[in-house]
Every structure is written in C-alpha cells, then in structure tokens.
Amino acid sequence: MNFSIMFDKEKCKGCTNCMKRCPTQAIRIKEGKAYIDSKRCIHCGECVKICPHEAYSAQSVESHKEKNYKCKIAIPSTTIYGQFPKGTEICKVQNAILKLGFDYVYDESWASELVSKAIKRRIEEKQGFKPLISTNCPSTVRLIKIRYPSLMEHLISLEAPMEIASKLARVRAKEIFNLEDKDIGVFYISPCPAKLLSVTDPIGPKKSCIDWVVPLNTIYGDLYREVKRENDTCYSNPSLKGIRWAVSGGQSKSADLINYIAVNGMENIINIFDEIENGKLSDVDFVETLACVGGCVGGTFNIENPFIASNSINDIIYNTNEDALSNEDLDKFEELYENGVFDLTVTEDKENKDKISIKEAVRRFEKIKEIVALLPGLDCGSCGAPTCFAHAEDIYENQSKLYDCVVLRAKSKDNL
Amino acid sequence: MVMDSLIKRYSYTITRNDFVTAGKSSSDIKGNLKAIGIDAKTIRKIAIISYEAEMNIVIHSMGGKLHCDIYEEKIVIVCEDEGPGIPDIDKAMTEGFSTAPENVRELGFGAGMGLPNIKRYSDEFKISSSDNGTIIVVTVLI
Fold first, then answer.
1. The domain that contains B84 carries what CATH number?
2. Which of A68, A171, A222, B61 is deepest in the core (most CB within 10 A)?
3. Under CATH, to which class is A1-60 assigned?
4. How many domains is chain B built from?
C-alpha cells in the first residue's frame, strides 16, 4: 500500500467535485462513488482540498511515539514557521518539536539553502539548455511524467531538501549519539500528501532516506502548546534563506536568480508546461513549479491560510537576527555537490499501453471523436467522467455507456 | 509503397492578423497527436513547428492553411499561404532576421526565429515561395 490519500466510501456522495478538479483526470464516479486510478494519480491533494464531505483524508500514520529507535530525528518542513501567530519566538519551534518525543531536530531549511546553491550551480552548468524546471514538488514532477513526458529533459534533477536534510541529519546524529544507521529513525514533518508519498514511492529509482512521515496537522496542537510556553529555551534558528522555500518563488530568490518564473497552482502549471512544450520560455533560466496555491504553505497538512503563512514567513525573514543563525553544513556544499549527493534521477514511466500501429490509433481516436459528437459537450460530469471526451473514451473502452449521459437520457425520455 | 500512405490529414484555416485565436490550430494538432498516442519527442517537435508555422501565416501572410498529415512512420506539417511571398528565402532563414512590424513585435512575436526554428526541429524541410504564396513542407520522422 503506497497510496497517501485515504478514501472513505461511506462519506462519498458521488458529487463529482473531486473528479472535475483532478488535474490528470484520474477520478471517475461509478455507481455514486468516486474511484481513483492510482496509475494516473500524482498525489497533489486537490481532491482532499475540494471534497465537501471530507471523504478524502491523508493516510493515517502511526504515531512516531510507537516507533522504536535509539534516536528519532525530526525534520520539520519549512512551512512549519508560517503556522504560528506573528511574533512567535521561532527559535522555540525546534525545541518544542524535541519535546514531542524526538531526540534530534534537523531543520529542512538548512538543506533548502544548500539545494538553492545547487540550483544556481546547475543553471550555470547548463547555460545552453533552457528553461530548467524545479524538481522539489513531487506532484509537478509526476505531472510531467504522466502528461508532459517531452519535458523530462528540462527537469533540473536535484533532490528535494527533505532528502538532503535526512542524509545530513543521519551523519550528524551518528556523530553526536555514537550510533549505527539502523538505530536512527528519520521522521519528516510534512506539509502535503505528495511529499508523504515521495517517501514510500520515490519519483526516481533511489530509495528515500526518510523512514516515516508525520503530517504537520497531526502534531500541531501539541506543538502550539509547547511553543507558547513561556521561559522556554531556544534551540536554534532555521536558515532565513532556506525558509523562503515554503513560499512560491522562494527557491529562486534563495538561489539569487533573476531570470526565473515561479508558478503555483495546478491550472497555472499546466498552462506554463504547454508553453514550454511549444518551445517558449527558452530564454528563461528556471521555472519553479509548486502544485499548491501559494507554494508549499498551501499544502493540505498545513493549518494556517497559505497567504497568512507567507506573510508570517516574510516577517521572520526580515525580523530575525542573522547572528543567531546556525547552518553548519553550509561549508560542506562543494564536497556534497562534487560527490553527486544532490543528483536526482527521474525515471520515465513506461505506460503499459498495448503497442498499436498509428493507423489503429488514429482509427480509435476518430471513433472516439464520433462518440464525442453525439454528446452534449457540457462537460458536466454527471455521467461519472470529468469531460465528454473522457466519457467517450470510457465508452470506447467499454467502461461506460452512452446513456450514462444524463442529457442524452433526458432527451430520449422527451421523445417517448 | 503501402507504408507510405497517408493515414489522416487534419486541416485548419488561418486568418491574417488574428491574434485572438492564433495558436489554436497548433494546440489542436498537439492535442490530437497526444490523444492518438504519438511519442512525446515527436509531439514536442511538431508542437514547435506547427506553432511557428501558424504564427508565420498570422503575421506575414494574407491568410492560409495549415495541414497535419499523419503517416505510419512520420508526421508532415504542410503550410500554404496566399501571399505575398518571401522575396529572399536565405535571408528569412537567418536567425534574428525579421520583417515583422513593430505592433506585432510589441505583442512578443516576430523575433526572427520562426523559420530557423521550424528547420531546426525538422528531419526534412522544403520551402518554395512566389508572389502567389509560400508553401512549406516539414517532415518529422517518428
């Protein structure tokens, strides 16, 4: 089971909201209930956000407290810093995480700052090839694999900060606690289901270095209480460059890029990918794409409204004393980059489509278009498919019937 | 030869100076090829070629037609317009050379990369031009 989104059939009313919202058309409604085609799902969480009946939820994760490791490391997502009221002493956040039952905290932002440097370096190395597309958001990478395979070569192919953080955290914890790898458990505190899934089902062939994922919202209550406790000690600060990654445009700003485009929200990303496919944007260095509106702060596991969270993060960036910062691993950049620690391999999805001749494929397409011509073109979704075209495809594949279309059914009744 | 026979032709009429619907035809071609299941690399090339060809008709011609011919082993884009023709084809094939008027450039078009780009992404490129119009036949092998 490597599906990060749980679906409660009882709660589903078959209302079609999720189906219409799904960017890869992975959802159909059959006999009044939604079905997700796991092969097409990119785990963006749009269905979780839109469902009015709360039929979708994040995978239930066993509590970190029940896991047995000699050392439990927590890696909080950069978005965590946007979840508290403005003015909260953010140096307390890591300490509060420790109190929830962790032995060591490694801030994702420290790794984000390192990956920003890698982005800058990679762009310099590939000057002849533009634009490069970010690989931090697993949903957008999966979208490229499923809908835009021709853009695969544009991927900047750098590991996400959460992965870099987990590697560096292990190294540090081994030194500090004098432990072996197997005694250490790495827990990522995640802002979204897509990152949760990138651990169990990575986008590349490499295995994730993270052992467990804790959805941010499941620990927020306890965390908030700890952060608000007075007279608490400070642990250490996040990287101010690194926490920019929580907000759309932050990767580029943190890497000191000028010629970049930051796109967020699935619809906008689809439009931009279409443009790149048409050969446009070949004069732009970097296209930063994040599936959620506003960037990672828009992920479904966050508590705060994404725009308020962005504002809080800005506040931290401008009002935190830089002297208090600690990012000891920053000096290791050259060594890490040379050793390929940042390199991500994204494998192409081999679709198990039966190989048919182009003649046969054209015939199929023309046949489907004939069916489309019979349908009303409302894309209302009442038949259980997101568009009339998708319905026609389903009819062609014998997955659905022409008279599942409510408009056609109503018309045929009128004629009786 | 049987393998060489045309399977399907999709044709579009392109209107001069119509920047509102410009890009629709090439986008439709791309959609069709995706739905048919043509491989991504070929689609990418055809998308660029047909988009540039369509914009050329909109910007430089009196109007014309864009065809996408599908064969078992290749896709051919045929672009024919109603004039006024290209006086110096060699010059038009030079990167950065543009005869697009200022108002078109203000829209972000007419950078002088149209024909060079079409040729760059093609496996075979034929162009002929007279006062009566220009015909471009571009082949991409699958």
1. 3.30.565.10
2. B61
3. alpha beta
4. 1
Measured between CA atoms, how close is A366 to chain B, in angstroms?
9
> Hunting for tokens 């090339």 — which residue is that?
B45
Supply the range of the domain harboring residue B35: 2-141
Q: Which residues in chain B touch residue A150, judged by CB atoms under 8 angstroms apart?
A: 40-41, 43-44
Could you tell me the pLDDT band of residue B112, with boundaries at 50, 70 and 90?
confident
Nearest to B28 by CA among A274, A279, A376: A274
What is the reported pTM? Answer: 0.83
Question: What residues does each domain of chain A span?
Answer: 1-60, 64-338, 353-416
pLDDT at A2: 47
pLDDT tens, residue by residue, A96-132:
999 999 999 999 999 999 999 999 999 999 988 899 9
Of A149, A278, A359, the CB nearest to B47: A278
Alpha helices in A256-342 (DSSP H): 266-277, 306-319, 333-338
**Contact residues, chain B, for A357 at CB < 8 Å:** 72
Q: In B, which residues are within 8 Å of A152 by CB distance?
A: 40
**Residue of B38, B44, B52 lying closest to A277 (CB–CB):** B44
For chain A, list residues whose CB is within 8 angstroms of any CB belonging to chain B.
148-150, 152, 274, 277-279, 353, 356-359, 361-362, 364-366, 368
pLDDT tens sequence across A154-207: 999 999 999 999 999 999 999 999 999 899 999 999 999 889 888 888 888 788
Tokens at A220, concatenated? 């927020």
CB B91 within 8 A of CB B112: no
Residue type, A252: S
Domain A353-416: assigned CATH number = 1.10.15.40
Q: A314: which 2 tokens?
A: 């800005």
3-state SS assignment for residue A214: strand
What integer pLDDT is reported at residue A202 of this predicted model? 84
